[in-house]
Amino acid sequence: GKLGGIELSYASDLDLVFIYDADPGASSDGARPIDNATFYTRLAQRIIHILEARMTFGQLYEVDMRLRPSGASGLLVSTFAGFANYQRNDAWPWEHQALVRARAVAGDPTVVDAFEGLRRAVLCRERELPALADEVVAMRRRMRDHAGINPDADELDLKQGHGGIVDIEFMVQYAVLAWASREPALADWSDNVRILDTLARTGLQPEARCRALNDAYLELRSATHRLALQQQAARVPAEPFTEQVEAVREAWAALLGEAEARLLAAGTTTE
Question: Which pTM was predicted?
Answer without folding.
Answer: 0.93
